[in-house]
Amino acid sequence: MSYTILGRAIKTEYLALGTLLSTVGLSYAAASGGSKEAPSGSKQTLREVKDSVKFESSSKEEEEFIRKFVEEAEKGSKH
Fold first, then answer.
1. One biological-process term from Gene Ontology (predicted)?
2. What is the pLDDT of residue 4?
């Protein structure tokens, strides 16, 4: 059996192979991802990132409690 595509007879075997190869190729391209290199100028130290985080707290004591809790959690997570 064959299909007529753009005026030419194409066998179903070729259509099936084309579909399978296209699917595998697109899946591989999507899974391979992009470059792992970070763009220049965007490197921040961990301290700069932590200082830039703003806590939504109603008082200064609550903000200090949250910061202390986060620091203790970080110390506990290090092996």
1. proton motive force-driven ATP synthesis
2. 93
